[in-house]
Design brief:
Elements lengths: L2 E2 L6 E2 L3 E4 L3 H13 L4 E4 L14 E4 L6 E5 L4 E5 L4 H10 L2 E2 L11 H7 L15 E7 L5 E5 L4 H7 L8 E8 L1 E2 L2 E10 H4 L3 H7 L2 E6 L5 E10 L7 H26 L3 H9 L5 E6 H5 L7 E9 L3 H15 L7 E6 L14 E9 L5 H12 L4 E2 L9 H7 L3 H11 L8 H7 L8 H4 L2
Parallel strand pairs: 3-5, 4-5
Antiparallel strand pairs: 1-2, 6-7, 7-11, 8-12, 9-10, 9-11, 13-15, 13-16, 14-15, 14-18, 17-19, 17-20, 18-19
Helix pairs in contact: 10-11
The protein binds flavin-adenine dinucleotide.
Length: 441
């Protein structure tokens, strides 16, 4: 079988594809790899843009391991099977009067996949999904099931919430939740350059603040969200028009036309701002935070310390204006609070993420390359699940715990069972730039 990711930019053919339904079956697959001296990578639902799942040998899926293992009502915690999607987890949380503190803007990832790459949403006072985990259970290279939490295997817990499948196969995660809540989202078109100086104050005043800046224009769509007790106000027809027709079908048509006819990107971006109207919706947290993504795209997402936002953005917009890349997708701008997870891009720093997209058919490597070069000046930490061509030599400089992480990895997996071809490029210092194939543009 040929395995493909969501954006169809990563394809590979594993020798064996195994779908485990129980912990025992996961252990069997891992022990088989160990005994036969083979490699094994685990995939979630394939929503990473980078080649993080790549293997030429065994690919394991735990998509069938879904749902609730146990509800811990008093602590407001739930233990889920790690193959549960973020969407299903949200529905199940609500059934128990609970909610995740924050989500990304999309929810079809598995809980294991989402945590393993440091998936995040927006909110300078809110952490990413990995930080919601208070315990996880992982089948390691010797076929053992390890429980990891602050009290049990604490070092593996600290490191293993963002571990890219390198510590083993996560089979269960226990999440710290909050009481169920509703969110009110307000969308509007703003002059982003006028707003820039106010952003630090706005970040404190709005629980979730996010911008979609239209490159080569002054305009951005602003999304502000706050917790509310107001009744649900989210008519299906309005949602259909805004989310399906405008944000997906119209965007798809615009991207496709401008790609085929090589239209002037600046003019198309200017045109797109005309589609952004004011909108207010109120609904359960998960229905507001997660959105439909029906237009396929490629993405690079770069995290720099929050205090460098204005300088970083200014360089980015200057470069885009100068080079006029043929890109008609908005740049998404989000903020995330610092955490304590060793390879989390927000490890010990409040950060801003700028996400650069291109339509999936559009091949503009210079766009991603130039953005990454600018971000390198600001100690960039790229999103692990998105495109970049950085590797160990860079990561050991920007992650203070890089070597501690690698020590644990080597202890848990001395035979390198969980290291596939891309992972090998990423974690070892090859003293030469990652090949194009791995950059995958
Ligand atoms: C349309 C779209 C929207 C997105 N929106 C956001 C967003 O808002 N915020 C954000 O931060 N990211 C976002 N992403 C990126 C996405 O959240 C991450 O790439 C995430 O890791 C994908 O989860 P997955 O289940 O598809 O895992 P995969 O992509 O399949 O795997 C990701 C990594 O997790 C590992 N892994 C998977 N399962 C296990 C397991 N059981 N045990 C151990 N390791 C495992 C894999 O080996 C791999 O290293 C988006 C992606 C897409 C396509």
């Amino acid at each position: 079988m040929i395995w493909k990711n969501w954006s169809e930019t990563v394809k590979f053919e594993p020798k064996n594809y195994i779908e485990a339904k129980t912990i025992e079956e996961v252990k069997e697959a891992v022990l088989m790899a160990k005994e036969e001296g083979r490699k094994l990578r685990v995939a979630g639902s394939g929503h990473s843009f980078s080649r993080v799942c790549e293997t030429k040998d065994i690919l394991l899926s735990i998509d069938a391991m879904t749902g609730i293992v146990e509800v811990h009502k008093e602590q407001k915690q739930i233990t889920f099977w790690a193959g549960t999607t973020v969407r299903r987890a949200g529905e199940l949380c609500l059934e128990h009067g609970l909610a995740q503190e924050n989500l990304g803007d999309f929810d079809l990832q598995t809980l294991a996949g989402a945590t393993s790459t440091g998936t995040h949403g927006t909110g300078i006072n809110l952490n990413g999904i990995s930080h919601q985990i208070v315990a996880f259970w992982v089948v390691t290279a010797d076929g053992e099931l390890l429980e990891c939490s602050k009290d049990k295997n604490p070092k593996i817990f600290e490191a293993g919430r963002v571990a890219l499948g390198l510590f083993g196969v996560i089979v269960k995660v226990r999440l710290q939740l909050v009481d169920a809540y509703k969110l009110k989202v307000e969308k509007s078109l703003v002059n982003f350059f006028e707003i820039l100086p106010q952003i630090p104050t706005m970040l404190q005043n709005h629980r979730n603040l996010e911008f979609f800046w239209f490159p080569m224009t002054k305009k951005a769509m602003m999304k502000k969200m706050s917790v509310t007790d107001e009744p649900v106000d989210d008519p299906q027809w309005k949602n259909f028009i805004n989310q399906h027709i405008i944000e997906n079908y119209a965007l798809n048509a615009v991207c496709n036309l401008s790609y085929r006819w090589n239209l002037n990107a600046k003019k198309v971006n200017q045109l797109m701002t005309k589609f952004v109207g004011n909108d207010i919706r109120i609904n359960d947290y998960n229905k507001i935070l997660a959105t439909e993504r029906m237009v396929r795209f490629k993405e690079m997402e770069l995290n720099v310390p929050a205090e460098h936002f204005e300088a970083f953005f200014t360089e980015v917009s200057n470069m885009i204006n100068e080079k006029q890349y043929p890109v008609v997708f908005p740049v998404e701008i989000r903020w995330v609070k610092a955490d304590d997870i060793w390879l989390s891009p927000t490890y010990q720093r409040d950060a801003v993420y700028l996400a650069f997209h291109t339509y999936w058919k559009n091949h503009v490597p210079a766009y991603f390359y130039d953005m990454q070069e600018i971000a390198k000046k600001y100690e960039v930490r790229p999103h692990w699940g998105k495109m970049h061509n950085l590797e160990a030599a860079h990561f050991e400089k920007v992650y203070p715990k890089w070597h501690d992480f690698m020590e644990i990895r080597e202890r848990l997996d001395p035979d390198q069972i969980f290291v596939g071809p891309y992972m090998s490029r990423l974690i070892k210092d090859h003293h030469q730039p990652m090949a194009d194939r791995y950059y995958n543009l």
